[in-house]
Amino acid sequence: MTIQDQIRTALSNVGRRKLRSALASLGVVVGTLTIVIMVSLASGVRQQINHQFASIGLDRLTVNPPGDRRGGFNSGGFDPFGISSRKKIITAPDVNRWKELPGITQIIPEVNLPGSVGLELKWNGTNQTVRMRGTEPMRGTFFQQLPEPVAGSLELPESGGIVLSQGTAQAFGISSHDFAGVIGRNVETILRTSRGETQSYFLRVQGISQERSRNIQVSIADRIAMKNWWFNSTNALEREGYDSVTIRAADVTHASALTAQIKHEGFQVQSLEIIVEVANRIVTAITIMFTLIGGIALLVATIGIANTMVMAIYERTREIGILKAMGASRGEIRQMFMMEAGFIGLIGGVIGLLLGWLVGLGLNQVIPIYLRYRELPVRGNFFVVTLTLALGVIVFATFIGLVAGLLPAQRAAKLDPLQALRHE
To answer: CA-to-CA distance for 414 and 328, rounded, in angstroms?
Structure first.
């Protein structure tokens, strides 16, 4: 028998008992479907993580003072007054020295206000409570698109500037059609203590972000002035230093070198490259776990395929005897039945892959609808079927079929032709 004859005979035998073949491949379909859905979810999460970090910039470093505890819950308890326990502070000379280092394209120092600061905005006689955000452009979290300006610009000047979120502007009754008219106008920012003391700062609106929460951003010089007033100090920056500094390097290589150098100076450095590596390791572990779960379902499917092949051999014992009488060798008989089992696995794998792809496609359409209903600005596909995944599940399903058909095929190859011909 030629290879073409063996393939043609195997396909014919699979189609001879359609219901039995379909039931045998059903286990493969379920296992493949499970693998495709779970691994495509892990692939989608991995792509979104890498995309979000890449959009933020893998060349970005965040430098923090060592032993920093302030403004909130920490190992020493709740500190509403922002009392510092820093072992070393980030000073203006430190920032100026870092600016001279090779490979640095941008440095953004950060000054935070204590969590107990009452912050309000006053517009046309109306006060609204708001929260302060960092001096970097307002950014989204994972799976969210980066916020864009709906009016003006999100870039802040050295002093006297403020950026409002869309939620803040709408809280004052400003419609989206009137956002452009707000740009360039002054807004009163009020700091309020628990004793009722207040201090006002008049800042010029630079832009409005698309964020829906009530947030504002203020220029670094105005933050320092607010902090001086809060601590009743003439220069809190010299005593407390910057709360953090964001450094953008020319590339990832420079970022790695800068990380080592600044850590050597005694500061804490967070690198997005390290975070991405850890996140990808976690996703890889989850992917392996999901694959093993689907693999168990496929292994169970081997029982159904093996049972189908045993019944097929029993029913076709006389046919096997005729083939051997016509000169078919043991190897050809074995190959024919293993091909038949492999085709059952292949068919189940292809159907499971298509069903998994369709389910993922549908969920990618349904999930954003639900998230928009919940007013969560989440974007991106959660289920991604890669070419590697598609080829992998088909090959694995076919391999499972071949393994399931190995023992029955070996049994068929060992049948005595005379006894097989006498079989009724």
So the answer is: 12
DSSP calls for 271-282? EHHHHHHHHHHH
Q: Tokens standing for 201?
A: 């700062």
pLDDT band at 75 (very low <50, low <70, confident <90, very high): very low
Q: What is the pLDDT of residues 4-56, one digit of tens each?
A: 666 666 666 666 667 777 777 888 888 888 889 988 888 888 877 777 666 66
Residue environment code for 385-417, b if the CB has 16+ CB neighbours within 10 A, otherwise e = beeebbebbbebbbebbbbbbbebbebbbebee
Q: How far apart are CA 161 and CA 221, in angstroms?
A: 9
**What pLDDT is recorded for position 204?**
92
Q: Where is average pLDDT lowest: 70-79, 86-95, 176-185, 383-392?
A: 70-79
Rg (CA), the chain: 33
Residue positions counted in the chain: 424
Answer whether 29's CB lies under 8 Å from 348's CB: yes
- Per-position b or e across 253-283, b if 16+ CB within 10 A of its CB: ebbbebbeebeeeebebebbbeebeebeeeb
pTM as predicted: 0.58
Burial label, 128 (beta-carbon count in 10 A; 0-12, 13-18, 19+):
middle
Cα–Cα distance, 384 to 80 (Å, whole number) = 45
pLDDT for residue 391: 93
CA distances from 40 to 45, 284, 353, 358, 380 (A): 9, 12, 11, 12, 13
Residue listed under structure tokens 């698109």: 145
Q: Are 62 and 270 in contact (CB under 8 A)?
A: yes
Q: Are 297 and 25 in contact (CB under 8 A)?
A: no
Q: What is the mean pLDDT of the chain?
A: 79
At residue 126, φ and ψ (nearest 5 deg) are -110, 135
Q: Kindly report the CA angle at 154 between 152 and 157, in degrees rounded to 5? A: 100
Q: Is 311 exposed, middle or buried (0-12, 13-18, 19+ CB in 10 A)?
A: middle
Render pLDDT for 90-106 as a digit per residue (tens, 0 to 9): 888 888 888 888 888 88
